[in-house]
């Protein structure tokens, strides 16, 4: 959520942000509703002041004056009740419109309507070549007993899967390796977060109301989260932090759930787009400084790239265009790792910053010498499985059908390759 003062003083800038992000919102209507809101609020406050002043005068005035004040207050009370009723309706529309206002993209964010217009800014590693015809991850992992899709569909339904044997052990190894890698960086508080979360945290992070169709909802009006960003950002909801503790860095682990409602017909086979997965996420709260947000954004991105590099997986980094940004994101990078069977890069990591968009909604503040301020927030995918397994097994497949284990994972996995026993 943006500051209403920022919106009213920069109408054209906000309209341009909505255009770039392809957000359909009537900013002029918001401005009109806000004007009505402020007018009603002023009138209500004046009438309450009149009531208070009359209440103080009545005991000390004569009968005629007392009668006059009582009659006047009856009129004021009726008008006040009508305005308060009207104010509640205006506030409902105002809040609804405010929740739809997008954050302003950074000036470096390119124009574009979807991920096809994202801008490649970096490549690392050589795209893996083979002296044999490479297989896809479905065939590799099925042949090695690492995954069972048939029984997954039988038990779960569409996009169901079981990771088993070395598929499960490889996932454990990756999680533990990435955890140790980032904890050695220092400054992170490790967290295991809940996935079943109340609505307020989703509204606060910007996933509601816009992305409700992609969330699983329970019978008690809670939702299953698609990222631990949601509970971590809710952790300090309605709290005032100490500036000396900033930045606060979390490394959080959680199961994640997404309906993939907008992905009908896409990646229907394999592990690329599943409903349930695991993720390690970097989440940071920092002081209200654009420069600090940019610095930490680059730091989190570097952490994720170092992880992928250490695993020897070729990748590229793209700068997301405005149309591929979420409602609250100021800027976002994606890491796309090389998938040999598809002969292209596929997104496995994202890294975003939001300024105070989320913290205003969640009321997370700190105090400095100039007064109260809302913190800035950032998040980054450290690793998400099973999606990352696709690039890992495909880039490390051998002609005999086995999979070579990256050197840094061997101490965690316990052997240097996966082969049929």
Description:
With 421 residues, the chain is an alpha+beta fold. It is built from 13 helices and 18 strands. The protein has an eight-stranded mixed beta sheet with strand order 1-11-12-13-16-10-9-4, with helices on both faces. Helix 8 packs across helix 9. The relative contact order is 0.14.
SSE class: alpha+beta
How much of the sequence is in beta strands?
15-25%
Compute the average pLDDT: 95
Using DSSP, what is the number of strands? 18
Chain oligomer state = single chain
Characterize the largest beta sheet: strand count, sense, and whether it forms a barrel.
8 strands, mixed
Provide a count of the helices: 13
* Order of strands across the main sheet: 1-11-12-13-16-10-9-4
* Poorly predicted runs: none
Give helix % range: 40-55%
The rough form would be described as elongated
| End-to-end C-alpha gap | 56 Å
| Alpha carbon gyration radius | 27 Å
Structural key phrases:
single chain, 421 residues, alpha+beta, three-stranded antiparallel β-sheet, 13 helices, 18 strands
